[in-house]
Design goal:
The complex is a heterotrimer of chains A (148), B (298) and C (285). Chain A has one domain. Helix content of chain A is 57%, strand content 0%. Chain A has 7 helices and no strands. In chain A, helix 4 packs antiparallel against helix 6 (93-105) and helix 5 crosses helix 6. Chain B is built from 13 helices and 9 strands. The radius of gyration of chain B is 18 Å and the shape is globular. With 285 residues, chain C is an alpha+beta fold. Chain C has 2 domains: 7-89, Arc Repressor Mutant, subunit A (Orthogonal Bundle); 108-281, Trna Endonuclease, Chain: A, domain 1. Chain C is 37% helix and 18% strand. Chain C is built from 9 helices and 9 strands. Chain C is elongated, with a radius of gyration of 22 Å. The chains are: A mainly alpha (148), B alpha/beta (298), C alpha+beta (285). Chains in contact: A-B, B-C. Chains B and C meet through helix 3 of B and helix 1 and helix 3 of C.
Chain lengths: 148, 298, 285
């Protein structure tokens, strides 16, 4: 028995039985677009994931989706995916749209960040990740051992 | 399947322990498992949330509570069995048109005095602390074994701190879950708890010493301190000798959770009680618990 | 919020050592005591859960339904539709459980066939529909959105006919909300009113036998219906059409044609829609 609705499973079945869900076709189109756009706009979705989305949806559907993006949406996505591109600020909206397409299909790669000269930092040994610690607890722990 | 015993404990109060017990019991039951909740917290909050005020009052009046059982077992002449104090079908929640299969061995506010009384009376009989613990563990262990066939999961809600009954529960549990808020004081409580577990010869008697306690991050908010602390908790895995593991699932601090716990005198549907945000998380948590304990899906 | 059951009741029900085998009679008796004495309806889902909690063991669907039907047949409880069904304690005026026989405390379900007979018979006759017109009666109590509030009239009646002289056609939709003896309240009037969102005429049909203790509510319900332009049909004796009395005629609502159209499309079969279309498009006789 499951306790939570599995949205992915519901969508899979929606697509499988398009005839049954015919009456809500327009809504399916609208929501499908909204969901993918939301995913594209999510901060944690990097270029790899965007390419993954393109592969998953196929060239056609992904192209249609990009065409439907607003200029502002294109700008925010491109800026996130390729924030060090020199033309980013000066570029036209049409260029950004094209560049997003190119980034997604792999014909263009994002620019690397400008190289900063790092001092001594590189020499530093890799720090231990931060973990819980407390001197009080340490004393308590020691005390426990001493008693035994 | 023989029931898996899960003790839910923490040194500190107010970390969402009752919420964890109630939501886990209901989520496991909604998954089709038969669940027994044993309340060892004198605040009796879990009992109240699961059974409701009126029914709990009846059970306390009948002495069908944990201290009623222990009193008979340890200090009285009459030997009652666990099963006589367990009340079946207590839940007011339904899922897929069926009542959740939750049974309860409730606590009452008298438990606090009773615990002191046990210790006093038994020390009068010249029993040492460890003998008391061993005796209690024996009694509880026998009864748990008897109940194991009838349930898939037995959840034990321990009182904050490490009381005599908490210590017994920790010894008998297959899994110890420590609900913790990802902030400074709560994690301090977590550290002392873990230190205490290694102490007082507790470690020797623990049933599954190899399995570390699991931390469940509760009342999580989207604030920096919670984020940093949660990361520290998760970094424990990289320690040479980790003191605990951490569940991937985190329970957020939401209005839905607070509301859910107040629906004591209503008859909600599980998914509506916990709401669309929390239900999928509970589903994830149940899956994680199942993986940890190697339990087949119900 | 009501406490689940009195302590004494739970105590009596619960023997710690032996779990009593449940019989229909035991469940029926407890069911009555769990229902609110003021006649507030309780969902079947909730009532079964209350019983299970009370007995400390699961009450099966089957056992619950047997007990409920037994009480219902004896006229001790009433039933309502919607959200999986509800039941309520039937009460006589002096607060005692009604001793009336089943014929007097008929449920909505049992009244449905009688109302259908009346609508297709006498009611239709009075509408005076010409031979080329069409008149449909449909039980819509189980059609429509499951969670739609007040969107499911018990019956609808649709008349469609072309004018005799003028060009054009007329389509009228009537909705009927059926209430059992103790079911007619202010809320029932509003329910009938709400259904005119999709229909032109709204009726409340109330089974109110002569000696009913609910008779006291008749003037108030009549006034409410009059105020909202809802028709009121009183059933004295459901057995024959003479037992149906039209107390108030409804006022025709100016429901938007699109709302009516959408409603009919959802509730009627294709064949029924075609019959209506035919009647509306037919050439002059």
């Amino acid at each position: 028995m499951s306790i939570a609705l599995d949205g992915f499973e519901v969508f899979r079945q929606l697509g499988k039985h398009a005839d049954v869900f015919g009456p809500i076709r327009a809504d399916v189109d609208k929501q499908a677009r909204a969901l993918v756009v939301k995913c594209l706009k999510t901060k944690s979705v990097g270029l790899d994931k965007v390419r993954g989305i393109r592969t998953a949806l196929g060239e056609d559907q992904f192209g249609l989706l990009l065409d439907g993006l607003k200029d502002a949406e294109v700008k925010s996505v491109v800026t996130r995916l390729d924030k060090h591109h020199p033309d980013l600020k000066a570029g036209t909206t049409a260029w950004r749209r094209e560049h997003l397409g190119a980034l997604a299909d792999g014909s263009s790669a994002p620019h690397a960040p400008p190289v900063k000269v790092k001092k001594a930092a590189a020499k530093k040994a890799k720090a231990e990740p931060a973990r819980l610690q407390s001197e009080v607890v340490d004393i308590y722990r020691e005390g426990g051992k001493k008693d035994r | 399947m023989s029931a898996k015993v899960i003790a839910i404990a923490n040194m500190k109060g107010g970390v969402g322990k009752t919420t964890t017990v109630v939501s886990m019991a209901e989520a496991l039951a909604a998954n089709g498992y038969r669940v027994l909740v044993i309340d060892l917290d004198p605040q009796a909050n879990a009992s109240l949330c699961l059974a409701g005020d009126s029914l709990l009052a009846t059970l306390i009046a009948r002495k069908a509570t944990i201290e009623g059982f222990l009193e008979n077992q340890l200090l009285g002449n009459k030997k009652t069995a666990f099963t006589e104090c367990i009340r079946n079908n207590v839940s007011n929640v339904s899922h897929l048109n069926q009542q959740l299969a939750i049974s309860l061995l409730p606590s009452s506010p008298n438990l606090r005095h009773f615990e002191q009384k046990i210790i006093h009376d038994l020390t009068q009989r010249k029993m040492s602390w460890s003998e008391i613990i061993k005796g209690l563990s024996g009694v509880m262990g026998i009864q748990l074994t008897k109940s194991r066939k009838a349930f898939d999961f037995i959840l034990i809600d321990c009182a904050p701190g490490i009381s005599i009954l908490t210590e017994v529960s920790i010894r008998l549990a297959d899994l110890i879950i420590i609900p913790t808020i990802a902030d400074f004081l709560s994690t301090f409580g977590l550290q002392t708890f873990c230190a205490a577990m290694a102490d007082r010869s507790l470690a020797e008697g623990v049933k599954r010493a190899s399995r570390r306690p699991y931390v469940l991050i509760t009342r999580r908010r989207q604030v920096k301190i919670h984020e940093q602390t949660a990361e520290k908790l998760r970094n424990e895995a990289s320690a040479a000798k980790p003191a605990f593991d951490v569940f991937r699932t985190e329970i957020p601090e939401t209005v839905a959770v607070a509301n859910a716990l107040s629906q004591v005198n209503q008859f909600p549907i599980f998914s509506q009680k916990w709401g669309p945000v929390v239900v999928p998380l509970l589903s994830d948590l149940v899956r994680e618990i199942g993986e940890t304990l190697n339990v087949d899906r119900a | 919020m009501r406490p689940l059951a009195s302590r004494a009741m739970v105590e009596a029900a619960w023997g710690p050592r032996s779990i009593p085998a449940l019989s229909t009679r035991i469940v029926a008796e407890r069911l009555k005591t769990l229902l609110p004495p003021d006649g507030t309806p309780v969902l079947n889902r909730v009532l079964r859960l209350m019983l299970s909690r009370d007995f400390g063991q699961t009450v099966s669907d089957e056992l619950y339904e047997q007990a409920r039907d037994q009480l219902f047949d004896a006229g001790q409880i009433g039933r309502l539709r919607g959200q999986g069904g509800q039941v309520f304690l039937a009460k006589s005026e002096n607060g005692r459980t009604s001793e009336a026989g089943p014929s007097d405390a008929l449920s909505e379900i049992k009244l449905m066939p009688h109302l259908e007979r009346f609508l297709t018979g006498s009611f239709r006759k009075e509408l005076d529909i010409p031979p080329h017109g069409e008149c449909l009666v449909k039980d819509t109590s189980r059609l429509g959105p499951p969670l739609g509030r007040w969107a499911r009239p018990d019956f609808i009646l649709i008349t469609a006919m072309r004018f005799r002289v003028m060009p054009g056609a007329q389509l009228d939709v009537y909705s009927f909300e059926l209430k059992a003896e103790f079911g007619a309240t202010d809320l029932a009037v509003y329910e009938a009113l709400a259904q005119t969102r999709f229909t032109h005429f709204g009726y409340l049909v109330w089974n109110l036998p002569k000696a009913s203790s609910a008779l006291a509510r008749l003037p108030e319900i009549t006034a409410q219906c009059g105020q909202h332009g809802i028709g009121l049909i009183r059933i004295h004796k459901p057995g024959n059409d003479d037992g149906f009395e039209t107390i108030l005629d409804p006022v025709r609502k100016t429901t938007p044609p699109a709302a009516v159209d959408g409603f009919l499309e959802q509730r009627l079969e294709e064949e029924e829609l075609n019959r209506l279309r035919k009647a509306l498009e037919a050439t002059q006789p």
